[in-house]
Amino acid sequence: MTVFERLTRRELAMVGREYLLAGHLIDRAGMPQLIAEGGLELMRDVAIEEWMGASPVYTRRTQRTLGFEGNDVATIFRGIQLDIGAPHRFMDFRYKVDDANHGEFWLASCGALMDVEPMGEEFVTAMCHHIEDPTFDATAAAVNPRARMRPLHRPPRTPADRHPHCHWTVEISDDADPLPEPEAAVRVAKSRAAAIPIAYAAEPTGDFDPEFALEYLPRSVLAAALGEVCLQGHLLVHSFMNAVEDRLGAHVTRQIAGKQLIGVGGLTSWRLAGALDVAGIGLDGVWRVLELHPAFLPREYVALEVERQPDALTVSIGACPALEEVGGRSWAAVMAAFPGLADKAMATIVQGADPRARCERTGRLEWEVTLDPAGEPAPQPDEVLLTRFSTGADFALEG
């Protein structure tokens, strides 16, 4: 039985929204580290290459797994509805399909904009112009190389309270030159993550629905979708590491990726514990969060095992494709290469579920997790506090 088979359809949808947000927050954990290394320009250039590398690969994967391959505007929009770059509710996408070759989307509210507006117009322009122009087209071109996304308006906002936050057209034209596959995507397509199969029982998913919610998917399809969403995060991390290593070298890249895992891993653990109503209840809550944490899913890629003992949990990562990732560019491979980062990451993840949890290494990629009821709650590390800068940290996805 897989971890998803233990969940109800409602729970799957709830967890799925957390996974989409967690994928988005990967950048909120990694980009502050890049800004510290090289400022806005480095962050911008890595972000462009990172998303152009990952998005075309996982867009096609999701289409294949869920059985809605096509080359029209509706297919482009269906992909965005299951994209970690567009977490539901936090990024409030709205859609309009005019015909097979024309459509529009707009963001009634954009959580990413809420994150960067306080940082000033230079950061807003970097995200909403320099990064989105090439990466939006790369996402569309994964469905149809003759598709283009163009803004009707976008930030910086004038007036300052303008809504919707941005508005884009999508057009497919036979006269447009087909966009080439981004070089970064060609590299990501060679990764172990790109080739991982997701177990799936085929069922029809219906036509494009602009009001789509995860609850609308049949249960088996929803479980497969969650596996793909988790894999999107790993593909994004691989692409991020490709781009950073080209600029800063392998050692610095792995240090940054480890801090990225600590930041988003701890915050996601805290959010999952709250969503599942298991925060602070002890080892059973920690166990449930570890079983469902997207950093360790899908199991086809990351072979995490959690064993419940009477007074402890035994947590281990066994032989798996993530540990053999091309160039060692995965979180699991970084954990294997840097025990100190691995210990801090695992401790932060379990303490996100219960701050009284304690984590001790017992072997290579193996830890014992215990509870110290009388101990002081563990403080959140700096990597988590940096990630918490995002408005997504406390964003309510339910209710």
Describe the structure.
This protein folds into two domains: 38-221, no CATH class; 232-393, no CATH class. Helices cover 48% and strands 14% of the residues. It has eleven helices and eight strands. It has helices spanning 9-66, 73-80, 111-116, 121-141, 183-188, 219-248, 250-275, 283-292, 331-337, 339-353, 382-387, and strands at 91-99, 102-110, 147-153, 166-172, 304-308, 313-317, 357-363, 366-371. Strands 1-2-4-3 form a four-stranded antiparallel sheet. A four-stranded antiparallel sheet has the order 5-6-8-7, with helices on one face. The protein is globular and about 65 Å long. The mean pLDDT is 95.
- Count helical runs: 11
- Give me the secondary-structure category: alpha+beta
Identify the quaternary structure here: single chain
**Count of beta strands:** 8
**Main sheet summary:** 4 strands, antiparallel
Radius of gyration: 20 Å
User: What share of the residues lie within helices?
Assistant: 40-55%
- What is the residue-averaged pLDDT? 95
Q: Flag low-confidence runs.
A: none
The geometry reads as globular
How much β-strand is present in the residues?
Answer: 5-15%
- What sequence of helices (H) and strands (E) makes up the elements? HHEEHHEEHHHHEEHHEEH
